[in-house]
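Recap for those who missed Tuesday's class. We walked through two folding examples back to back. For each one, the amino acid string is listed first and its predicted structure tokens come directly after. Nothing is annotated here on purpose, so try labeling regions yourself before you check the end of the notes.
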Amino acid sequence: MAGQKFQYDESGSTFFYFILSFLALILIPATFYFWPKKKTEDPNKSKNDCQCEGCCEKRIIILNADPYKNVKSFGVKFSIILGWVLLLLITYKVSQFDYEMSNFDPYEILGIPLGSSKSDVKKAYHKLSIVLHPDKETGDEKAFVKLTKAYKALTDDDARKNWEIYGNPDGPGAMSFGIALPSWIVEKENSVWVLGLYALVFMVALPIVVGTWWYRSIRFSGDKVLLDTTQLYFYFFHKTPNMALKRVIMILAASLEFDKRHNTQVPERPTDNEEVPSLIKLLPHLNEKCKEVPLCRNYSVKARAIIHAHLSRLLLNPNTLEKDRQFVIRKCPYLVNEMVSVVNQLIMLAYAGRISGQKLPPIETIENCMKLAPMIIQGLWEFKSTLLQLPHLTEDHLKYFVNKKRYIKSLQQFAKLSPDESRSLLRDLNDQEYDNVIKVLGRMPLIDFSIRCEVVDDENSNVVTAGAIVTVTVNLVRRSMSELFGDSSAVEKQTIKENDREKTSEENGIVGDGNEQKENAESKAKKPVWLKQKAHKGKPKSKSSKSKPAVGVMKQATSTTTTSNSNKENKENQAKPISMKDGNDSDADESSAESDNENVDEERDRSSEDERKNSSVEDDDMEWEKFQQKLNKREKLEGKSKTSHSVHCPNFPEDKQEYWWTYICDRKSQTLLTAPYHVTNLVDYQEVQLKFTAPRWPGVFTFTVCLRSDSYMGMDQQLDLKLDVKEAPAIPQYSEHWNISESEEEHQEQKDNESEFTTDSEMSDADEK
């Protein structure tokens, strides 16, 4: 290797090999990924789409959103085609090199038979040299060079022997090293130009490109939100933990994405000085005189006025403020998601003890942020009727939905009406407009929302002990609202249930829309066949399997009765030290308490034996659940899809997909137990696992599992999750020296923790007092 001499490519053949391989490595993946592909549209899609005025205008806006789309497509096609043409030319040139090197036969070149003598070789050479010599009229320089090489190969004994043995007059090929670059690059005359090009590319252009990309990337978070905006949200939500909905809108409008100094795409016009004040006069609850920075700045007031006008569905100037509305509303979903994330982080930081001196943000604050998302998408205030999400419906049509015979205020109730009744309600609409209403209503989501609760890591997964990690599996099945068409028998019952539910929610102080649980009853009545038979496919049903309760829903309803005795005993045990201080007889109390505890232990042993008997029936279900967990982990590793179903939202300037939030909270203490999980890929079925730590003391606790839509109003649901928390098993004492006793500090911590959650027994005691 030390004696090898590197040479540059004088003929240019190896340089073409380098260019050929380099172009192939770039063109093949570039053609696959960047070649413009035409989307195969369904011919029936245009018939099924809504043809209202708002949807038609939205399609035009989406088509005109990228005016240089055709130019970019043509440029990409031209570049790829030019690259392939160049690749074919280089391939042809390289193939000619290989043909000349692999087809050298001296006997064929001289035109003599194999094994001819030297005299025959000389005669043939002289005869052909007269014809092919470059000085002759019929001469050919390349052919004469090959002729001379063939003559030398056959007249020289060593060369002839090498050709007959190795197929090469030079003998066996020796290893050579070369640089696949032409020699003119290292010539002195061209050194200045080569060094200048090197410095321009690697010392000027490349640092500028990398620096620009880095400067832009560090300013944004993963959700395309400015980091300065995120810090702004942290400041306001930390300052005002309990934030109302209108205050959330003010914070949203103060986002720095709408400021010209942070975003150069923000349009500013001289006409804003006249149009914005006139728009503010039409909005009575704008609170434009707020002096809090940056809520009082011009960009914030303008964005707030545009958001209020969007929610009020006011018509704006199509050349000025309407374009500003499209720009502002287009960025709002990302900003609302960032708000939800910020409030969740503040709650988690408060739980971890990193934030002190401030009140914990209640559940109402994060729910107000979630409520704002469908309001922005549909362009409606929260107090407006959800029926206004349908096309062609106005406030004047709502008077037909409420009368002495019927009271229809939700989309589900309207879908259950018969065709004759729904047509009579919308008698002011023509046939085409009525068809648009039915199309949109039929494509709206109908979610079957169910939960299952278990403790995965424990031996008995159906028993929740104090301090255990509880896993709540949320099952979401997406159906279409068209399945409810014609079910008019349930309308009156549904209205009565909703009125009763609203009264109870107002009495208990539960914040909700009133329509959050009505889909649960519908899901129980109508469930897909495949969902019912999936876990028990090919297996006969036994009595034990029929009577097997689910911890999340069915068992929790029965657990309240079985634990009433234990709650009473806990009350007696708490009152026992007081009686001892008073000097009463404590022997009888201790003996009765011990007997009661023995009875409770016997009942627990019996329940555990029953559960062990049913464990053999649950083996197939556990295997199926483990298989589903593996699939979920694989989906997380491959990446989370963001494609579900398109939302009907003519007032939103972009295509929107159906997304959902699901989380667990405690309504009594107004606290959030799990981080909101954003479901972005609910097409037909989705399974989500939410985990939280059970309370540290035994009792019956009632939590709420919530499901909220970020695209439609009136689609929210919630289910009660009742946990019968048992006492944690005692730590085994392996030595007498390890006698661990509870200290006064542990008692004090237990008293402090009692304020986090409130049991049902404690609430009943408070009511009795």
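Example two. Treat it independently of the first, because the proteins are unrelated.
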Amino acid sequence: MHPSHHARTSPDRPAIIMAGSGETISFRQLDERSNQIAHALRAAGCQPGDTIAIFAENSPRYFEICWGAQRAGLYYVCISSRLTAPEVKYIIEDSGSKLLITGANKGAVAKEAAAAAGTKDLWSIDGEVEGFKPLEALAAPFPTTPIADEMAGTDMLYSSGTTGRPKGIRPPLERGLPIDADNILVQIARAMSGASPESVYLSPAPLYHAAPLRWCMTFTRIGSTVIVMEKFDPEEFLKAVEKYKVTHTQVVPTMFVKMLKLPEDVRMKYDVSSMTFAIHAAAPCPVPVKEQMIAWWGPVIDEYYAGSEGNGMTYVKSPDWLTHKGTVGRPIHGQVHICDEEGNELPIGEEGQVYFSGTVPPNYHNDPEKNKAALNPIHPDWSSLGDVGKLDADGFLYLTDRKSFMIISGGVNIYPQETENVLITHPKVADVAVIGVPDEDFGEAVKAVVQPMPGIAHSEELAAELMAFCQANLSKLKCPKSIDFDPELPRHATGKLYKRLIRDRYWGNKNSRIV
């Protein structure tokens, strides 16, 4: 299915409604505007297989661009609106994006990034940016009918690389694939959630993240109305559920926490009985939190484990979770194997690295070493996201560790190496480790543990100086929320940092030398 089908059968049905402003885009408008954008992209020289970048906050224009690129056979890179100009520049260059589209409220950062990257084709949405062509005016003269060489494009989203730099996940693009070709998420949404054109889907998260973008586009394919929050607020979320009679949503566990922390009289005054399906992933959900959410919303909360890489997926519905608490489900895309460090498959109940078979391995753009590292050394057709877990006798997967100590804060993946690479350049820093520490609201918070240079005393002033140094070079979400000091970080003679020993100090283990 595709929104173009619904534009013919139900042209006036709302495709997108912004929860805050109330701006509404019908399926007819979405179809016509995405056609015009596809024509504009061709006129700008974008051919099938080319790449464009989007650097914007939540807006109906976001979907018009994505669907325009999708029907033009392009890769569309959705860049976090929180990134700094150097970070945006890196992604533009690494992805090979020929064109940058920015929201007017991100114009200053976009201008700096584009100038540094040498990007010439620059478009803006939701307002004007100096040096950028307003997309709304640019696309207006083009036909509202499809381009002659329509074919399906896809997203190219960024994850971490081996050096800490983000790496693009670039799936194969099949030339000539019809724009309405089915995909795994459409199948899951129909089979697992009963999604239909009558469904109302609420999206509370930034669209540059993989899950919100893909689930929104999936429900639009099916013909559902998608309600988009400009930004998440727990009470506003509940208001939207009641106002629009929301049936489906996708969240991260920190959103559950924020809703549960609302005063009970606030929480309970909103009618959420329309909700038939709420799915979560991205970060571990504490068992007590999920128990409370199921008690509140009913057994309508599903969970899955997967990555942007698309190399496998597990899934669990509430009834099975309640009898297997803590599980992330059984495989529905690929088969799961638990293996030791040599790649041998382990017995049921033993912990090891999680691999998927029967799927396409990840394809990290410009990083053959990362592609190789994702493969099982004995079974090279098995691939892993690097997580550690175990299977029970019923085939349910339980995750017990995270890939390379990645930090997940509020459902956002934060890779410590990038922050470490910045801090180590400070003249007063001899060594540094960045880890995730427990945080009541976000699951984890970023903490830096710094070994000062000889002769440099640890102090609150030094911590403030290092925090400011990070904020000048990194987006806010990657900056430490706190800094501790250690006279000597635990390293092997080979130089390997024993980050687990540092992390354990904050997660209940002893022998801390933190000062």
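Answers for example two:
The chain has a mean pLDDT of 91.
The two ends are 58 Å apart (CA to CA).
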